[in-house]
Design brief:
With 528 residues, the protein is an alpha/beta fold. It folds into 3 domains: 5-186, Rossmann fold; 236-416, Rossmann fold; 421-526, ANL, C-terminal domain (GMP Synthetase, Chain A, domain 3, 2-Layer Sandwich). 31% of the residues lie in helices and 25% in strands. It has 15 helices and 27 strands. Strands 2-1-11-10-12-13-14-15-16 form a 9-stranded mixed beta sheet. Strands 7-6-5-3-4-8-9 form a 7-stranded mixed beta sheet, sandwiched between helices. Helix 1 packs across helix 2 (31-47) and helix 6 (184-198) crosses helix 7. The longest helix is centred in the first third of the chain and has 17 residues, at 31-47. The termini are far apart.
Length: 528
């Protein structure tokens, strides 16, 4: 039984040494070769003094060196802090100082920006993937090109499953980013649970599009290492490039978020003849709700492919999934608890009845340790639940902050964020509900609904949208707005109809995990 994440990789060194672990374009890296490269970087980390429990920041674009760096940290019992390559130098500096990072692994482009900032006190070494940029301190910066072999002897791998394995920083939508503390047990349990219901095996090839700084993307990697499968690294999110990768690499599993699926499904629907993906066994979605009009088309553009709709949060990794056989009749449901997890819907008075809205709470070994250096925020998120005391006593559960309800078959349906519910004309309205109806118009791509404060009605509902472009003639903003509002007036109750449509120029901003950056979108729309 594997106790640490590194154990997952090490068991494949001999058992599946020749099998492809990673594919990056034409570069195919076997499990044996991956382990050898991990040893080289681990040897460097040992030389610069990395100790068990020290934090190492990995700030690289999706690549083989990024995977090598993460496993090298785990090889020595360090804590891996994967920082999205999309973060600015100032944001990176914040993360390094917040958790006291001792070693930074980055590339030359990011190093040039970082070198202009004062060096964090705890930082003792920076490893540059490739050649070091000119003018950096040679006592602090080392080029990966100088690392040619592991200096023996490396110590035996250390650690047990309750040790801290990773810090994944949230997007900071409600303030500065918080580092979610994940143990080896969290990551291993997540991989075992997901591979169980997805039926993963060594013959699988997963297209890895999501960032490894996102728990959903990291889990893809760990699931494949658990079963000895292959991860195909994909950096470009353009629909045409995703289609080519699915075919070229005979992908069997593909995970994405709604901002990826929406344009991809729209693009595939315009192609004639329709593309075929004979190897593709399943798709998974998490990180938000796919609009109903897109869900309806997915079985048509991915015929014969099992579609898993999932729900989770970084603080508890994954909570639920909808079985593919229910997809046709329960399109949009987030299903039931994943293996080895338990979820409840609670109200102020107790457990919610069927059909009653309540907050989803999660229990089990997937729950994180909370937030690094923020005990108050941790105690607010993870705490005993009075409504469940008769079942689990004083055990802490993770409060999701999401409103859901359970149908008579036990499947859950997402309503909205408890803290983002809109109050207009005396009604409580879920932004998700508005977004679903607007999406069904077939006039727009992405939709973000929000409220503008109003003295008379409390909040006025507004929406920010992107116009459809693939295969359609472009329409001007005024025509789109008029058509969309006319559709809403015909299909929505009056209190729910948006008062204004903001048509976005170009792509909407995204977070490092690929989700829509809702706070930025709303802030910019309200400022217009």
């Amino acid at each position: 039984m594997e106790c640490t994440v590194f154990d997952l990789l090490e068991k494949n060194r001999t058992a599946r040494g020749d099998h492809p672990a990673l594919i990056d374009g034409d570069d195919v890296v076997s499990y044996a070769a991956l382990c050898d490269r991990v040893d080289i970087v681990a040897s460097y980390l040992k030389r610069v003094g990395l100790r068990r429990g020290d934090r190492v920041a990995v700030h690289l674009n999706k690549s083989v060196p990024e995977v090598v760096a993460m496993f090298a940290v785990w090889r020595l019992g360090g804590v891996m802090v994967n920082v999205s390559a999309q973060l600015t130098g100032a944001q990176l500096d914040y993360v390094l100082r917040d958790c006291g990072v001792s070693v930074l692994i980055t590339d030359a482009r990011h190093a040039v920006v970082f070198a202009r900032l004062p060096t964090p006190e705890a930082l003792v070494a920076v490893l540059i993937e490739g050649a070091c940029p000119q003018g950096v301190d040679p006592g602090l910066y080392t080029s990966s090109t100088t690392l040619t072999h592991a200096t023996p002897p490396l110590p035996p791998p250390v650690g047990i499953d309750c040790d801290l394995a990773a810090l994944l920083y949230t997007s900071g939508s409600t303030g500065m980013p918080k580092g979610v503390m994940l143990t080896h047990r969290n990551l291993l349990t997540g991989a075992r649970s997901v591979t169980r219901y997805l039926g993963n095996h060594a013959g699988d090839r997963l297209l890895s599009l999501l960032s490894f700084s996102f728990d959903y993307g990291l889990n893809q990697l760990l699931c494949m290492v658990l079963v000895g499968g292959t991860v195909v690294l994909q950096r470009v999110m353009m629909p045409a490039e995703i289609e080519r990768a699915l075919v070229r690499h005979h992908i069997t599993g593909f995970a994405a978020v709604p901002p990826v699926f929406i344009p991809l499904v729209q693009y595939l629907g315009t192609l004639s003849p329709a593309p075929r993906f004979p190897a593709l066994r399943y798709l998974t979605n998490s990180g938000g709700k796919i609009p109903p009009n897109v869900l309806t088309v997915m079985p048509e553009v991915f015929p014969g492919t099992a579609i898993f709709l999932m729900y989770g949060l970084t603080e508890a990794f994954r909570s639920t999934f909808l079985s593919p056989e229910k997809f046709g009749r329960k399109m949009g449901s987030i299903g039931q608890a994943i293996p080895n997890a338990e979820v409840f819907v609670i109200t102020a008075d107790g457990l919610a009845d069927v059909g009653q809205h309540g907050e989803l709470v999660h229990r089990g070994s997937l729950i994180s340790r909370g937030y690094w250096g923020k005990p108050e925020a941790t105690a607010e998120k993870i705490r005993p639940c009075p409504q469940l005391r008769h079942l689990i006593g004083e055990e802490g559960v993770c409060y999701s902050g999401d409103l859901v309800y359970r149908d008579d078959e036990g499947d859950l349906w997402f309503v909205g964020r408890a803290d983002s519910m809109l109050k207009t004309s005396g009604y409580r309205v879920s932004p998700t509900e508005v977004e679903d109806v607007v999406s069904k118009s077939g006039l727009v791509g992405h939709v973000v609904a929000f409220g503008r404060e109003d003295d008379l009605q409390g909040q006025l509902i507004e929406v920010a949208v992107t116009s459809l472009s693939m295969g359609l003639e472009p329409v001007d903003k005024e025509t789109l707005s008029d058509a969309l509002l006319a559709y809403c007036k015909h299909t929505m109750p009056a209190y729910m109809v948006p008062r204004r449509v903001h048509t976005w120029d170009g792509d909407m901003p995204r977070t490092g995990s690929g989700k829509l950056d809702r706070p930025t979108i709303i802030r910019e729309a309200l400022g217009r």
